[in-house]
Design brief:
heterodimer, A: about 290 residues, mainly alpha, Helix Hairpins, Four Helix Bundle (Hemerythrin (Met), subunit A), 8 helices, globular, B: about 525 residues, 16 helices, binds copper (II) ion
Chain lengths: ~290, ~525
């Protein structure tokens, strides 16, 4: 990525944002139609999703072409950095909402329903037996088991932590211009990411097939599946980003001292990693 | 760092006609689109408010079905907050921040375009729900479950529309932060930035922090509705009150998102027309930052009547009252800026002065609402409605109007008609008080909000309020007329359109050329 001699690069116009707006709007209209059981939902959703993927592809292709073409100055690079940092911050806050729901349920609403707050348990439900993990007073007879930390989540923790290490090794290799080691360790990172996704999928299968733990298993099922599910989607996205970046490495993109696209992906991967540690502690262990 | 590079290789010529607006990456084009979109939504949301005031003109049910009335109160709020006030501020940010910090454009110009164009799409989805089976959302803009879950077909469309608006806000804010942190001209240190830039930096930070939390809350609504989760159902171990906590964790910073840029505008305009530098610049910055910090730890003052441990009530009460301190610093500084100034009273200054007076009234009623035991009486009454309309209409909207008058010469190259501007100001200021001041009395007397009918003892003040409402609504047409006239012609504006105006935006010609500061100015 050659650095521009001077000046701040301002593209003169782009079709991608408007394509993205049409795509995103169609996607969500499709989902809404589907949820309300109205015709065409899946078709609209598919078309919107395809358009959105086309937009992401084309937009990034433009950015990569401009970057490789040497149009980006150090100042543009800093703008992109700030953009990525604040995007990750917004993602952290999104997870924060779900962690907040988990803590609220565990430390306030379930104890209140369980009798700590006499008014709640007297007026609403007589459910003195309620304690975490629970599916709530409306599901007291339900036979289900919570998901413990052993063995799958622990293995997954090790996998993600290892992937953080391999990614860092790859990053150092890039800085030292050791392409072969860079690419080897990038594929190792990707393999670990894919292994995580497969194990997570298997864990969901276990939950549904053997533990009778489902998305609708009260507040435990809700928080468990929504937190791990959104995290899993982020791992999937991170893995796709890693694959794209690795293919670019193989095409000879990036330089030892200038590789923002690579770094952004690495930041994202570490963010996904850290969120998982939060999940491991607060969802699985505690 | 010398010149701006443009993409001549791929787009030899800039697009023309309507397509120009679809693909533009120019901060001035995008700023103008935001501002015009905001004006359109202001009129749409205003029309909804007039439906509400028409129904409330007399007790009894006259004009609309109660369910439609509830849709109007819900949609009025969503349209005004997400469609009128926020895009107006983002439009001002787009136009003015690059000019104020000496940048060639926003930091991420393509994403800037996307931030804008998501808005019309989001609102097309949101407004279309009014025509769906079962009507639009009617449970209030706060969308509390379980009531919100009783929405008809509109339900998922509303949720997704708000997701789209949230994505737009987050991207817009990321752009603002990146621009301010990275695009300042040499010498423009943080503590030399105009206050409008400072307040927007903090606003953008708040938006990036809380819009995702709103996204989380409404996603939980969606999964509770369609996928069997029980976040907000006690039967499953959840709690409907949980929604209120998450929503107001977003909602309270949101009200500062709606007012901090207004503080910046007023802090720009008052020094210009008092012909004195702003009193206490650094204390203004610190006060803004304190308000932003406190905004994260006061949310439950919206929920005093919902049931909360006593310690929680006390904490949220005192934390909320603490906000009066930095806000008081600001009002003091504005007044001190005017002290012994050589003041003139052009329309922007009139709106800014009205802001200082009337926003402060809203601030004081907010202080009353913050007192938990008193709030038991005021909660969900017209007193609350009066409170937040004083801070949002005579606060946020008046500041936006002040900004429009102040910068119109820079945008259009023409001076607006001062005669029409003054007419707009006086009619608006008198009618808005006729509209909202009586609502304090109605609320203290016990009239609940969001009800299309009321008992007869409330009749007089409601009738007066409705008269004020229609007068205020139609007064805005003067502004529309003035705007059209100003865009089409008028007295030529100087580069420095106002004698006392300071800042880099007045160094470039009026109208500001399509590209400015391709070579960054040096600030001393
Ligand atoms: Cu509040």
């Amino acid at each position: 990525m050659a650095q521009a001699e001077s000046g701040y690069y301002v593209p003169h116009g782009s079709n991608w944002p408007i394509i993205g707006s049409v795509g995103l709007t169609s996607l969500v209209i499709g989902i809404a139609l589907y949820l309300e059981g109205m015709g065409l939902g899946l078709w609209v959703m598919g078309a919107g999703g395809a358009l959105l993927i086309y937009m992401v592809w084309g937009w990034f292709a433009d950015v990569i072409r401009e970057s490789v073409g040497g149009l980006y100055s150090a100042q543009v690079d800093r703008s992109l950095r700030w953009g990525m940092i604040w995007f990750i911050f917004s993602e952290i806050m999104f997870f924060g909402a779900f962690f907040g729901a988990l803590f609220y349920a565990r430390f306030l609403s379930v104890p209140w329903l369980g009798g700590e707050d006499p008014a709640t348990s007297r007026v609403l439900w007589d459910s003195a037996l309620l304690a975490w993990p629970t599916a709530g007073p409306g599901n007291l007879g339900l036979d289900w088991k919570p998901m413990g930390p052993w063995p799958l989540p622990t293995i997954n923790t090790l996998i993600l932590l290892t992937s953080g290490v391999t990614l860092t090794v790859a990053h150092h290799a890039l800085k030292e211009n050791n392409r072969r080691r860079l690419i080897t360790f990038m594929w190792m990172t990707i393999a670990l990411g894919l292994a995580f996704i497969c194990l997570q999928a298997y864990e969901y299968y276990e939950a549904y097939a053997h533990l009778n733990l489902r998305l609708d298993t009260g507040i435990y099922g809700s928080t468990f599946f929504m937190l791990t599910g959104f995290h899993g989607v982020h791992v999937l996205l991170g893995t796709i980003m890693l694959i794209v970046i690795t293919l670019r490495c193989m095409k000879g993109h990036f330089e030892a001292d200038s590789h923002f696209g690579y770094e952004a992906t690495a930041w994202y991967w570490h963010f996904v990693d850290v969120v998982w540690l939060g999940l491991y502690v607060f969802v699985y262990i505690m | 760092m010398t010149a701006t590079t443009h993409d001549h290789a791929h787009h030899a010529a800039e697009a023309t006609g309507f397509k120009r607006w679809l693909v533009t990456t120019n901060h001035k084009d995008i700023g103008s689109m935001y501002l015009l979109f905001s004006l359109a939504m202001f009129l749409v949301g205003g029309a909804m408010a007039l439906v509400i005031r028409a129904e409330l003109f007399q007790p009894g049910l006259q004009l609309v079905d109660p369910y439609f009335f509830n849709q109007m109160t819900t949609m009025h709020a969503l349209v005004m907050i997400f469609g009128a006030v926020m895009p107006a501020f983002t439009g001002l940010a787009n136009w003015m921040i690059p000019l104020m910090v000496g940048a060639p454009d926003m930091a991420l110009p393509r994403m800037n375009n996307w931030s804008f164009w998501l808005l019309p799409f989001g609102f097309a989805v949101l407004l279309s729900t009014l025509f769906m089976p079962g009507g639009g959302p009617a449970g209030g803009w706060t969308m509390y479950p379980p009531l919100m879950l009783q929405t008809g077909t509109a339900f998922p469309f509303v949720i997704f529309a708000i997701h789209i608006l949230g994505i737009s806000s987050i991207m817009g804010s990321i752009n603002v932060v990146a621009t301010i942190l990275n695009m300042r001209a040499p010498g423009m240190t943080l503590m030399k930035m105009p206050l409008f830039v400072w307040t927007w930096l903090i606003t953008a930070y708040l938006m990036i922090a809380v819009m995702p939390v709103l996204a989380g809350a409404i996603t939980m609504l969606l999964t509770d509705q369609y996928f069997g989760t029980t976040f907000f159902s006690a039967a499953g171990g959840g709690d409907p009150v949980l929604y209120q906590h998450i929503f107001w964790f977003f909602g309270h910073p949101e009200v500062y998102i709606l007012i901090l840029p207004a503080f910046g505008i007023v802090s720009t305009i008052i020094p210009a027309f008092a012909r004195k530098p702003l009193f206490g610049y650094s204390s203004m910055v610190y006060a803004t930052a304190s308000i932003a910090f406190l905004s994260f730890i006061v949310w439950a003052h919206h929920m005093f009547t919902v049931g909360m441990p006593l310690a929680g009530q006390l904490f949220f009460m005192y934390a909320t009252m603490l906000i009066a301190v930095p806000t008081g610093v600001k009002v003091f500084n504005w007044v001190a800026t005017m002290w012994r100034g050589a003041m003139t009273f052009e329309t922007p200054m009139l709106f800014a002065l009205a802001f200082v007076f009337l926003f402060t009234i809203g601030g004081f009623s907010g202080l009353m609402l913050a007192i938990a035991p008193a709030d038991y009486q005021y909660h969900d009454t017209y007193f609350v409605v009066a409170h937040f309309h004083y801070v949002l209409v005579t606060g946020a909207v008046f500041a936006i109007l002040a900004a429009a008058y102040y910068w119109l010469p820079k945008w259009t190259g023409h001076m607006y008609s001062e005669r029409l501007g003054k007419a707009h100001f006086w009619l608006s200021t008198i009618s808005v008080n006729v509209l909202f001041f009586p609502q304090h009395f109605l609320g203290l007397a016990g009239m609940p909000r969001r009800i299309p009918d009321y008992s007869v003892q409330f009749a007089d003040w409601n009738m007066i309020s409705s008269i004020g409402g229609f007068a205020f609504g139609f007064s805005q047409l003067i502004f529309v007329w003035l705007l059209i006239k100003c865009i089409r012609g008028g007295e030529k504006a100087e580069a420095r359109a106002w004698e006392g105006a300071e800042g880099l935006e007045w160094e470039v010609p009026s109208p500001a050329p399509h590209h400015t500061f391709d070579t960054p100015p040096v600030v001393r």
